[in-house]
Amino acid sequence: MSKSKPVFSSSIGKKLIMSLTGIFLCLFLVVHLVGNLQLFKDDAGLAFNKYAYFMTHFTPIKVVSYLLYASVIVHVIYAITLSMKNKAARPIGYAKYDGQANSKWNSRNMGILGTVILVFLATHMSNFWWKFHNDQVPYIEYRTDLATGQTTARELQASEFHDYQETVENNVQILKARDLYKQVDFAFKNVALVALYVIAMAALAFHLIHGFQSAFQTLGFNHRRYIGIIRAIGVWVFGVLIPIGFAIMPLFFFFK
């Protein structure tokens, strides 16, 4: 590597940035899954709608969200750049190459897996993030009797809703919010969308099984003392638990 060449513009630098952004995105998946578990509460979406408002209005979370968007973009661009560079470096394939003998299927098809995930992200953002931020979801009012703890809910007309509001009147807590929960319920009645989510989560599983361990190897965490732990976390947490957790959500709403 030339001394005059910036570190992060080199192949090693790009791999380093991909590793760091990849690990950051993995951490986001954990937080996002925990938050989305509110969808399973039998409360007409009260907990989830509170969570949605918090995630979009709490300043530190908003700052992290901008870092998240930037990480996704950088991760994708560098993945494409490195893939094109590797292909250009070897325009003519080997006379005899047995891919299965040299690497695992997911490591050889990270580009395909990443493309499936990218299509999923675009669909996910347009169905939920875009509609929530552009006032294209229903509105709801929750009334909780503070004496009994019982909550009732009713859909609001657009003329009745101005902004997220939480008040207490006559020992009744009143919450008016955008009903992202109902948008989720509506969207996941579409069998094609549910199928896309399940397929995308399968792609995410294979992508993370290879990507998680690869990221730590790039960062130099490849010692035999802890590589087994990293591999286990990559497989069982990011390759199994998290993708299944996300895949269950659309299936839950489709079949309930």
From TrEMBL:
The keyword Lipid metabolism does not apply. Keywords: Membrane, Transmembrane, Transmembrane helix. InterPro entries: Cytochrome_b-558, SQR/QFR_C/D. It comes from the Bacteria. GO terms for cellular component: membrane. CDD domains: SQR_TypeB_2_TM. The chain crosses the membrane at residues 63-82, 110-130, 191-212, 233-255. This is Succinate dehydrogenase. It comes from Sphingobacterium puteale.
